[in-house]
Amino acid sequence: MNEMTAVSTPVLPDAQTVTEVKHWTDRLFSFRLSRPASLRFRSGEFVMIGLMGETGRALLRAYSIASPSWDETLEFYSIKVPDGPLTSRLQHIAVGDQVILRPKPVGTLVLDALLPGKRLFLVATGTGIAPFASLVRDPDIYARYDEVILTHTCRDVADLAYGRTLVDGLAEDLLVGEEASAKLRYIPTTTREASPRMGRITDLLRESALGLPDLGADDRVMICGSLALNQEMKAICEAAGLVEGANSAPGGFVVEKAFVG
Ligand code: A2P
């Protein structure tokens, strides 16, 4: 054991050490935690993480793992809710702090919950891009699909920075860089601030405004955002003839609510 590992030894049960914190805007931040040696997960899954509450009980919320399954640390992407019980405190974590992580990954935004298909749409709003940040760094996604279309709708241009940085970084990714540049298409949209592509993804899909063939039976869709986005996208998928999938019964699309605070 070297000095670094001795310093970062967790002291709380299930606690992990913060290794990196990045503030993207005054409402959004990402952070990395040490990874329990025994933790295995499938790209797109979430875990419960949190802090000790004042009553001495753990205050936990579901967070998608944003890092790829081969990464040494675990990355998370979060909103900051000023009066949110957890995120009002979590936004102040610093390198070396301890965060509770229950190492039981679960979730439906996994490739195994989808039937084989040609195009895969990953539709996110806000922090809903987190599970897709893991998936687009997984070689399996490019082995299974001819085309992967990542859409990210946010209010303002600055809210897109995490996703854009992720996608830009893929070019240098030794594992998936080549396949991602051939197969991944990134479609960022904003709804409140001017940008090259404006509008809600739901409207853009319904109006066939993306310059892509309409959603059809050979397409697969993963959806992660607010309840309203999820419901609207579910209706769009069903109108295209797709059936909702699950781990136990793979289908044409899968949905999960993004963590909201
Ligand atoms: P809008 O600005 O029109 O509400 P939030 O920051 O509230 O989580 O929203 C993130 C993004 O999701 C915003 O751009 C928001 O657009 C968009 N959004 C909210 N509801 C829906 C919906 N039902 N369908 C598509 N996009 C939505």
By CATH reckoning, the class of the largest domain would read Alpha Beta
Number of structural domains: 2
Task: Pick out the low-confidence regions.
Answer: 1-10
What topology, given as strand order, has the largest sheet? 4-3-6-1-2-5
Classified in CATH, the superfamily of the largest domain is Nucleotide-binding domain of ferredoxin-NADP reductase (FNR) module
**Which structural class is indicated by helix and strand composition?**
alpha/beta
Assign an overall shape.
globular
Radius of gyration: 18 Å
Task: Describe this entry's structure for a reader.
With 261 residues, this protein is an alpha/beta fold. It has two domains: 15-104, Beta Barrel (Elongation Factor Tu (Ef-tu), domain 3), CATH 2.40.30; 111-255, Nucleotide-binding domain of ferredoxin-NADP reductase (FNR) module (Rossmann fold, 3-Layer(aba) Sandwich), CATH 3.40.50.80. The chain is built from eight helices and eleven strands. Strand 1 and strand 2 (28-34) form a beta hairpin. It is globular, with a radius of gyration of 18 Å. The structure holds adenosine-2'-5'-diphosphate (A2P). Residues 125-126, 153-155, 191-192, 200-202, 226, 228-229, 232 line the site of adenosine-2'-5'-diphosphate. Adenosine-2'-5'-diphosphate (A2P) binds at residues 125-126, 153-155, 191-192, 200-202, 226, 228-229, 232.
